[in-house]
Amino acid sequence: MDSKAKRILGAVSIPSFMIGTDFTGAMLLVTPIEQEYSVDITTTQWVLNAYALTLSMGLVAGGRLGDLLGHRRYVLIGLGIFFLASLGCVLAPDVNTLIFARAAQGVGSALIWPCILALAATSVEEDERGKAMGILMGTVAAGNVLAPFIAGTLSALGDWRGFFVFNAIFAVIAAGLIFRFIDREKDHATNEAVDVTGMAVLAVAVFCLLFALDTGADNGWLSVPTLLLLGGSIVFFIAFPFVEQRVKDPMIPLSMMRNHQFVRTLALNGLPAVVLFLCLLYLPQYMQKVLGWSIFWSSMGMLPLAVVLATMNLLVGNYYNAIGPRKLMAAGNFCLILGCVLMLFLQTSWGYAALIPAMLVVGLGGGLVFGPAGTAAVNAVGAKGAGLAGGLSFMFHLGLGAIGIACATAMMFIAAIRKVEAVTSAASVSLPAGDLRVLAAGTLEDPAVKAITGRFSGNEAEAVTNAVRESFATGLHAAFWFGLAVAIVGLVVAISIDESKLKTDAPEEEAAEI
Predict the structure, then answer these.
(1) Nearest to 268 by CA among 486, 490, 483, 57
(2) What is the pLDDT of residues 108-128, one digit of tens each?
(3) 105: nearest Cα among 164, 42, 29, 145
(4) In 3D, which of 278, 489, 286, 494 has the Cα closest to residue 404?
(5) 13 in Cβ contact with 263 (< 8 Å)
(6) Residue 47's pLDDT is what?
(7) Any idea of the CA torsion for 248, 249, 255, 257, to the nearest 10 degrees?
(8) Are 417 and 71 in contact (CB under 8 A)?
(9) What is the tens place of the pLDDT at every residue in 214-243?
(10) Where are the alpha helices (DSSP H) in 354-442?
(11) Confidence check: pLDDT of 287 > 50
(12) CB contact at 8 A, 366 and 276
């Protein structure tokens, strides 16, 4: 690899790391955001989902725009959008503004990620392309792992907005490096088109599903708005493949959609992300809401998961061909199943030590699945489709992860409300539905929770306080029941893989077979 290629890889690694931090870092900030804006988890989850939705839906369009008008240009445009959106997060006066700014961050990232993939791939000779992609994916993984510690440290120094200040600074640094070390491209594709229709149909389908899960938790699953949203989601999901058959350059080419091995590897990029995201989102909240830890110490508490996940990401690639992707991914999903089972047996009286075994096996499982799944997706379609396969893998990783979080959060919130109602009713304390929601979603330090508990004294006050403490743990169990179901599906899909078509040294014609 020559010095020019090394400079280009170094330059694109900075925005790659930045994108890696932005989703998992925000997960640690859910509790302080809830407290500042006095909202519940069904609302704050949109701080995560808005980013995941716009990023995952815009990835293919970002890549096509880069092909048409220049990857360097669109990386810089994306970084500009990301910078302004990060400032919007810092200055957000309410949660709705924050959610809108997070959606804009996703748009910026959707322009950046596929274009830096293309810049990295074209900066080296073909025999070094795998190494270049490995470096880039490694920086994303490093961002995923380090983000909670960055968010926790910056929050401890100031408040949660410090993380988005970090985003803004990183965007400026990345833009400077891209401008300095990467030349403007002279040749662009002329036969590409952006599938705006397909992107819009899929985005509406996912949005309706996510919003239905939010509305269902609030208003009931048989309410008219929930049923309309669920119906709309089903209609748009069904319409998507028909739309893709009629556009010039579909988001997912029909040949890829018919490639069973590729579809399965895409699923294995997304399904395991659900369990990992559940841990990254809810375990820090458990440490804060149940164990009473600060944001900083809860980020430090995630070290067992982070260390194992990072180590496995570095090591597992060496065994892709020797052991085989099917065995690696099946073993990884089995570990995720075990991690969910351990979380289901968790008792609040056991303290932090009870979380460590679950974090270790989830980190091991994620490390065994994610690297091989990304490589397998590329190998399933051959070298010519590598760029698009990489983009779609990331889209499924975030998209299915966000949908999983929304489903688990809906189940969690319902279980938490029922727990609060059961505990308070047992103590003959009657509360309106609005108060039940506040107690189920909050902590004892929340002003809204304090206002409710302050109305009671003696045994009644103790009952309300216990309801708040126990509701989160009860909801956590409900969320990991969902995670367990997803992990079992992931194991079944992994076992069904035909790994003879997913070897890195397989001929391209064989890898592209259906």
Answers:
(1) 490
(2) 998 898 888 778 777 776 666
(3) 164
(4) 278
(5) no
(6) 87
(7) -110
(8) no
(9) 777 667 777 888 889 889 989 998 998 888
(10) 355-381, 386-426, 433-441
(11) yes
(12) yes
Buried b vs exposed e over 461-478: b needs ≥16 C-beta within 10 Å? eebbbebbebbbbbbbbb
**By the 8 A CB rule, do 164 and 47 touch?**
no
End-to-end Cα, the chain, rounded Å: 34
Q: Are 24 and 276 in contact (CB under 8 A)?
A: no
Is the separation of the CB atoms in 481 and 415 below 8 Å? no
User: At residue 406, what is the residue type?
Assistant: A
Compute how many other C-beta atoms are within 10 angstroms of the C-beta atom of residue 380. 28
Distance CA 45, CA 138 (A): 27
What tens digit of pLDDT does each residue of 294-323 get?
Answer: 888 888 898 898 888 878 877 777 777 788
Give the predicted TM-score (pTM) of the model. 0.80
What does the radius of gyration of the chain's CA atoms come to, in whole angstroms?
23
Answer yes or no: is pLDDT of 51 > 60.
yes
CA distance 412 to 118: 40
Q: What is the mean pLDDT of residues 370-390?
A: 73
Q: Where are the alpha helices (DSSP H) in 161-259?
A: 162-181, 196-219, 224-244, 254-257
What is the Cα–Cα distance from 318 to 332, expressed in whole angstroms?
16
Q: How many CB atoms lie within 10 A of CB 220?
A: 13
Residue 163 contacts residue 155 (beta carbons within 8 Å): yes
Do 67 and 118 contact (CB within 8 A), yes or no? yes
Please choose, from the candidates 45, 61, 145, 71, the residue with its C-alpha nearest in 3D space to the C-alpha of residue 107: 61
Reported confidence tier of residue 491, pLDDT bands at 50, 70, 90 = very high
- Per-residue pLDDT at 1 exceeds 80: no
Residue 414 token pair:
């319902």
